[in-house]
Write a structure and sequence with these properties.
Shape: elongated
Structural class: alpha+beta
Strand content: 25-35%
Number of domains: 4
Number of strands: 25
Largest sheet: 11 strands, mixed
CATH topology of the largest domain: Alpha-Beta Plaits
């Protein structure tokens, strides 16, 4: 396409807790762009940012598109119209839209994306970045969406997955999604390990479909385009969807927990991991939640493992001295609660010995002796053998040196599932011949 321009388009925060979906806006924009005969240079990006931001909507995902066009001005004007039309501004959405004309993305764009992935980035910071780097912006409301829009354009996929998202016909919006559970179970069996987080056998629960009034019907996550298309073809329902689109994504990569947090300066809402020793035996509080503390460099951080994760049984078996890596998000301190790391995973790096002082064991009868009274020693009630003092014994640990992950239904979009533990998709290859976009209307 001679005389054409490479145009990067990023947008975010077009949805609300009551409905709409930023990926559906992307679907509508791609539908329009295909009619304009632009050249797509990559799959649409679906980038999930920091899941600990308190005002996020569901998966906190932003979208970016990379195209080549001879009419960038017309394209920009029309996309602004789409953002105005399909943003849930009446329900609190604060959409942000960014355009950047350049063949290559500067390195500091990816650094901005990394900040948005792991920390709390202000709207002013995003506006300042846009002004300094020649980004064209459009936003409604307070412009919160500019953060994700910029971050999605510059995101560095050192690992990536794919998600096929199908969309509902307007006549079905607001109705219950009727997906046959056995078809999802079968799909998981057939496509595993190429797809992930489709069904939680622990909870007997489908994981591919949202429960709200948004236009998404279901989404299949996997390692490549072929696998997610195969997975979606195996999902059965009486409802017919309007079409689908495949996104390149950071879902299932665990990218938000790759950076080590500073235990001396834990920033509220930041994501990452801590390494330290358990400073005291965990406490099980009302509701079955488990709390433990990690100590390092003279500082201590409280960690919370909540019951829905399915990790509380294991976490309660930690003891003082165990060396642990715990990943998650920092919950802001409040009047009634101190600052705490909400645990998304933990890994036991080394176990301490659990030594307990006990009454001596009778070597004849294999039973614990009884105390004869203060300072009088111990005696076997069966054979009469005596001993003068207690003994220290090692109690076998009921926990191992390994990584512990939550059950699938407790995974966040970014959580790295067990099957992806040593998996990295590093190649960024776009095959426009594959059917990554489908409109059935």
């Amino acid at each position: 396409m001679k005389g054409s321009t490479v145009l990067h388009i990023g947008f975010d925060d077009t949805d609300s807790r009551k409905g709409m979906c930023t990926t559906f806006l992307a679907y509508k924009i791609v539908e329009y762009l295909k009619k304009e005969r632009v050249k797509f240079l990559d799959y649409p990006y679906l980038v999930r940012f920091n899941p600990n931001i308190p005002w996020k909507t569901r998966g906190n995902g932003a979208v970016a598109l990379k195209i080549k066009t001879k009419e960038p001005l017309v394209i920009k004007q029309n996309i602004i119209k789409f953002v105005k039309k399909y943003s849930a501004t009446r329900d609190g959405a604060n959409p942000g839209l960014v355009f950047y004309e350049s063949k290559d993305i500067p390195k500091h764009f990816s650094e901005f994306g990394k900040m948005a992935l792991c920390t709390l980035v202000s709207r002013n910071k995003a506006k300042e970045f846009a002004a300094q780097n020649g980004l064209e912006t459009f936003y409604l409301g307070n412009g919160q969406g500019l953060i994700g829009a910029i971050g999605a354009i510059g995101y560095n996929f050192h690992d990536h997955t794919f998600e096929l998202i199908s969309y509902r016909d307007e006549s079905n919006l607001g109705k219950r999604r009727e997906i046959f559970k056995d078809s999802v179970m079968k799909m998981q069996q057939i496509t595993h390990p190429k797809t992930f987080n489709n069904f939680d056998a622990n909870k007997d629960r489908i994981l591919i479909a949202p429960h709200g009034p948004d236009p998404v019907f279901f989404g299949v996550r996997g390692e490549d385009v072929k696998s997610v298309i195969q997975g979606a073809s195996l999902v059965k329902s009486q409802e017919k969807f309007r079409g689908y689109m495949i996104f390149r994504s950071n879902q299932g990569t665990g990218d938000h927990l790759e950076n080590e947090l500073n235990i001396k300066d834990l920033k509220p809402f930041s994501s990452g991991y801590l390494i330290g020793r358990i400073s005291e035996r965990p406490i099980i509080e009302l509701g079955g939640h488990v709390f433990f503390s990690l100590t390092r460099d003279g500082k201590t951080a409280k960690c919370a493992v909540y019951r829905p994760t399915g990790l509380t049984g294991v976490a309660s078996k930690l003891i003082e001295g165990d060396f642990v890596k715990a990943g998650g998000g920092i919950r802001k301190a409040s009047k009634n609660h101190e600052r705490v790391l909400n645990v998304e995973f933990f890994e036991v790096l080394s176990l301490d010995k659990d030594m307990v002082v006990m009454n001596p064991l009778c070597d004849r009868c294999k039973k614990r002796m009884k105390s004869k009274g203060k300072g009088q020693g111990y005696k076997c009630t069966k054979c009469g053998k005596t001993s003068s003092k207690k003994v220290t014994e090692e109690i076998p640990r009921q926990i191992r040196d390994q990584l512990y992950l939550p059950i699938p239904s407790a995974h966040r979009h970014l959580s790295r599932p067990a099957q992806r533990r040593s998996k990295l998709n590093t190649k960024i290859e776009f095959d426009n011949s594959k059917k990554w976009f489908c409109n059935l209307n």
